[in-house]
Fold these 3 entries.
Entry 1:
Amino acid sequence: MIVPAPFDVESVRSDFPILASTVHGKPLTYLDSAATSQKPQSVVSAIEKYYALENANIHRGLHYLSEKATDAYESTRVQVADFIGVSDSDTIIFTRGATESINIIAHGFVESVLQKGDEILISHMEHHANIVPWQIACEKTGAILKVSPVNEDGSLDLVAMEQLINERTKLLAIVHVSNSLGTVNPVEAIIKIAHANAVPVLLDGSQSVPHQTVDISKIGCDFFVFSGHKILGPTGIGVLWAKREWLEQFPPYQSGGDMIERVDFDGTTYKAIPGKFEAGTPHIAGVIGLSAAIRYLNDMDRLGAYRHEQELLSLATEQLQDINGLRIIGTASPKASVISFVFDGIHAHDIGTFLDADAIAIRSGHHCTQPLLKRFGVPATARASFAFYNNEDDVDRLVKALKKLKKFFT
Amino acid sequence: MKNDSLDELYQSIILEHNKRPSNYGHLGCATHTAEGFNPLCGDKCTVHLNVVDQLIEAIKFEAACCAICKASASMMTNALLGKSLAQAEKFTLRVDRILSDDNLDYLESDGDLVSLNGVKNFPARIKCASLPWRTYQAAISQKNRAVLE
């Protein structure tokens, strides 16, 4: 039997220049990867190389550089399709991020699906990006937004969810992994329930793609969205995937150059997908950076990385639980390497500022999930999120600082 | 270095007001009430006032917020209780200067409010300190909501 080599976190860390930096004269402890991941040098270099040596617009120039840029851009579409288990790369649309991806879907539903009295079902643990577009879609069409409840441990109540699905339900829009709690939702079971009722499912993969391999052909959802900057890529680039028939049915979200087939003052015809949804000069450098990020992930031992993150999660959970007055919000299993917590009598902002003095970066606040935090009766939490490039020293520093914090404030 | 300014931010007066805030709670006889929100972080602060003949006869606050915000609210209620609305306005302008001006000469009348001077080194936290004061201003101008942009 071949024993896999252990995950070499120190070697991985050396790929990320920022992890060797200091903040306030102390080594950086970056525990905010759920907000945005750090970038390996290969991603930074790919973007720099494009701008320095290969910069050109795509889809229009007949010159060498334009063709090269077009190739880089379009081959990334195929790379992204492979990365998430999609065979038809025309169904990969580049967007500004998961938020814009969801907005495109919501726009499509407003324009071509929703009628008065229809229902959209979301869950209580959604990010604002998967709540507000649906609220607006409902306002515009007279549809009704339904919310599936969350259990005390931070898992979804699937029985309640099934009961909320009926013949008026036009879409189930749900997060794959919760950004606030870390809960990994049983999406295959959820999709089975939805599809048994002929309800399509949108999965927000913003927090799942960074931690695990995602195979849409296996999961079987109808829409999938994620952001590049959470998977080592640059900000301002994201992905919308949908089944071809939906993309063909939806009208364009934005219009202008690069999305047309023919423009005449008598009328205009649009490109087929994916061009129909990519008006204007796209974020070419972002796509090139995303390509380098996916290459990095594909070349890495992702299973080893996942196991390493889970070890950090167990270690941190165990040690944080031992701190008197600290309460972890979200204890469902399985869980991604995200720990939200509150402290008796100490507000999350004070925790954030205090940890920052020790160069520990965490997120404090509502994490764009205000309804979820309200459900747990807290206005804000502190959230430490671990990526594969974090190590045990990071956990130690967090725990030590939190013990100091308790003395300081009480 | 940063640890020194951490002590400046969380001066003992602030920690004390955070632990044992003055004038915390609901006010049955309120003539003016407003809720203040900081959408960036979700902090919430409610200010209740009883104003008679331009005089603040009673002031209380309720809050779900950080130590800086709670201490600022607590000190505000102490500073404004029994003051005229004109005097109160002067205090609110004064606090804005304490939160921004590096070369301010402090006055005896500033009292505990001087302890907010460490906040200006933490730009992300200035709104925490100003939220109660903006909420007070909203209440007095008969707006029931103050939302910091």
Entry 2:
Amino acid sequence: MRIKVLINDFKASILTWKRSKGTLFWTIAFPIILILIFGAIFSGQSVEYDIHINDLDNSQHSHQLISIMNETGVLKPHTVDITSNITAYMKNEDIARLLEIPKGYGQALEAALSGSTSPITLTYYFDPSEQSSSSIVRSIISDMLQRLNLQYTQGRTLVELKDESTITEEFGFIDFFIPGMIGFTIMQSCIYGSIERNTKFRKDGILRKLLTTPITRSEWIFSKMLFMLFLSFISTILIGIVGWLVWGVSIHVTPLMIIIIIATSFLFSGMGMLIGRFVKEEETADTAGGAISFPMMFLAGTFFPLDQMPEALQTFARVLPLYYVNEGLRNAMIYMKFNDALINTFAVLIFAAVFFIAGVVLTKWHED
Amino acid sequence: MQLRLQCPHCGHIESYDGTPGTRIVVSCLSCGQQGQISFPFNHETAGVPAIEVSNLKKQYGTLTAVNGISFTVQQGEIFAFLGPNGAGKTTTVEMIESIRKPTQGQVKILGKDINTSFDEIKHRIGILPQEFKSFERLTVRETLEYFSVLYDKSADIDEILKAMDLVDQRKKLYGNLSGGLKQRVGVAISLVNDPDIVFLDEPTTGLDPKARREVWQVIANLRNRGKTVFLTTHYMEEAEYLADHIAIIHKGNIIAEGSLDDLISRYGKGNVLRIRNCSTQDAIETLRINGFDVISEGNGDIAIPINYKERVLEILSQLRHDCIEYDSIDIRRSNLEEVFLTLT
């Protein structure tokens, strides 16, 4: 492999990229606009949320509270019995929200009926990385407890709610959204970049011309991947800077984050090659790229947490490569959940190997 | 070695002898203009045909696109490969360029088999593919530099820009150029490695007559620089203007091959003298009596096939002698288009 050829092709790709207003918009301006818009209009959705209950009181009143939760149709309570460290338990069992009803809850309500007010506190444990759904669930429980206070003490505080985050840092929707936007932007640039090389360059005779020059297939692929990596890191840096400057997002640059970005570039470049292999016309290939990338963008938890979607879609999302990219980037660069990030990275690497190898092997470099 | 060159000023064709690798100053024997000629330097391939195609065949299922064709292109000549659309021209040239794999047959370029030596051959050929469009957002100069870096040996970009008359366009983006200029850049790209053989696949398709003429001049200059040109075209006028050697392919077979004069003399209908608006019956009688083959074309026009220009004077003398009036005369020369239409 000749370095001068790689540098030459890389330089030509950069020049071409920076002179294309459309490409600059889609790779830089579009993701930034989306971050600003979505960051400003964040809102939840009406769906069913799981809530785990650690009922230490185990009384008629605590059972009644769980039953009321169930009747809301929005909360889906699951009873657990935890005596040790709740935060560790939640992490191990991958539980996002848990309400602990303390011992004495029933007694406090009974006492209130007889005129004696002795406040009692329920603790709400939540995973801030699922901030959107956690805050919705919290507001529902608060509302229920306010009604309870009104019923037992005419509004004086009898039962109150205390928050406990499973992670020490506080996260918002934008912390969830920024890594998703990075994954989405890399996916778009790599898929469409590959499609352009495999359809437009073929139609324009550039591939035929290159076949008759001394450039090798590996030099061509390697230089193009070098450019795609450059674009991926440029997008990541810009999105990160905007997220930090405008929304105060704290991004940690970790080795896993870098591995995921590299693997994602290979993954979606391979996917673009496959699309270009089977759909010859440039316009049709663009449409095919959109037909694959846009549903994936919505279903893989780029904009909204997966747990807000119906169960069937959640299951489907787990076969989509972008889901592991998004989750991996969140865990590796924001939430710092190393074990989860490692699993996501492994999944992204497998997808990258499969798609990139298939793309290179199946792409037709010569004519029939 | 000998180079057969066309004067860029008056179009006169002349052969010049010289030593490979040297450059000489010559004067045109017709118009007297002076110019320089370079004789390609390569002892190894001196005297070896530029391209040898033997029994080349391409089969797609039951369809035979190219049916076992053979031909040879000599160094320093412009070889025009003619044929109607779908005749197998591009399939053939892409097999020679190693873009398509032949079903059978052998191709040698400068004496080397493309199956075993194409990596080496790549450095000695330059190719303009059919309907080629380069990177739209690179300038002309950047485009030439991009392709030149791919080769171990490259020509001087400034010289190419000058030779292709692209100096004024060098800073313009390729995507903003006219069709004619894009084709000129395409030819220029094929020269960045200073190749011995240049393949041009339909280089003027889709161009207006002026742009086409400009590209022709560029191609003619390639021959003047000692390059071998393999030109694929379906424009007869283009082949007539440029080619030293012509092969016509039809339905996958070479149906005729030779120089322009060879083809016209073998397959043309000869020259025809046309006399317009004359007293038809009197003229036909007079000329037939004197041994001429006369054809009435209606509306008072007659046509007389002639093989020698002396016969024209005889015919005109006869008409004057018999006091037969006419409006005008013209002589239509047999051309490649006529040969092509006859054969295909």
Entry 3:
Amino acid sequence: MALLTVNDVSLGYDGRAIAEHLSFTVEKGDYLCIVGENGSGKTTLMKTLLNLKKPLAGEIITGDDLKPGEIGYLPQQTEVQRDFPASVMEVVLSGCLSRMGNRVFYSREEKQLAVENMKRMGILDRADQCYRELSGGQQQRVLLARALCATQKVLLLDEPVAGLDPKVTADMYRLIQSLNKEGITIIMVSHDVAAALQYAKHILHVGNRVFFGTREEYSSSKLGRLFLEQEGGEA
Amino acid sequence: MDKLAEYLQYPFVRYALIVGVLIALCSSLLGVPLVLKRFSFIGDGLSHVAFGAMCIATVLKLSNNMLLIMPVTIIGAVLILRTGTNTKIKGDAIIAMISVAALAFGYLIMNFSNTPNLAGDVCTTLFGSTSILTLSRADVWLCIIMSVLVLVIFVLFYHRIFAVTFDENFARATGMDTEKYNLLIAIITAVIIVLAMNLVGSLLISALIIFPAISAMRLFHNYFKVTVFSAIFAVICAFSGIIISILAGTPVGSTIVGVNVLAFAVCWSIGKLRGTAA
């Protein structure tokens, strides 16, 4: 059974739909990229997958023992976080909260998990540094390490390279790809179609017209070519 | 010093010190998440709600006005904090609306009561004045119990409060019931504010919430250290503020706030100096 099955889902605010009749599946180990114009409902779709919002219609079925809360999430940075006084360790550890149950403090295993994930993201030497003093790329690594503390199965990334310079962007994509090779399912929202086509296995295009298929199918489809041209023209 | 030792023999001075320090401690702990969540003004807003409730209690001649003030303020806190980010009226606007409305209606209602010294009563409620020096033993116990309760809750939920403050969406996505914790923060805030009205009056409560937190943020870059330092900061300021006001005969509330402002200035300068040195 697929990890996530999205069945004829409609999304929107206050009963007004912005994306309708979405159906797609995410298999274990998949790398799905969600692309589309601004305002097409990419972020809303992500919030719905995360259970932060209810779909207007349709259903989302989780399979393969994926429990709610076992999804790792890399959100876009908020205003609050930019000047938040917290050390890297504190931020990463907060990803372990869902494992805590009713315990009050973190256990040794959870601290160990945080350390391992910081090592994995190459930020262990910055554990005591202040989160707000890091560069954008390093902040993303911290948030990735936090997401990895919450899940070993699936990561949802919301515009993971927004605001990063080209070199850091390339590093970030490589990092995400290596996680995918380790067996973690990746679902990424992005407006960077070129990168999506380079790394993703499947593409979901939301907007006036909807497309779901492999990246090869997408780049040979009419919609995909049109969108690629547009984006290419803008860049 | 002799004068101080002499004053300390009076129970009302000791009561004032106990209550003052405890309230300052609780509000400073809560201040860190509130300031970070951009809810600095919640203290101000809620204290005006409490003021409005107190006016109603006065007019109704309730014997124990806490029974009315506490629930009304808690409801106000819930209304303000639950709006969050997804509503049409944003946090700052809703605080301002509730706060001025409560202030205006409170003063209006106060005029219907036949108190001989209306201006004096209102002034006392707004600026705290001497009520901290006339605490009864029961008041002190109430305050101690409430403060211990707040401290215990704060320690038990420390990591969860951090998570909800730092990134509410992430916390929710990983299965945390963030609504519950926001509600908890709202209720504790309301309790502290009602208690703090005795100390500094409803106009100056924000100072107890904001100054320790932002002073600590000037100096430390780690959430745990910020929390600990703001607690120490608040205790020292409240203690010295009360002592100074007794020795110099100044109003208690404004003296405590004055000490807070000065101490903030010191922290700010140290932070600046360190920043340029680094």
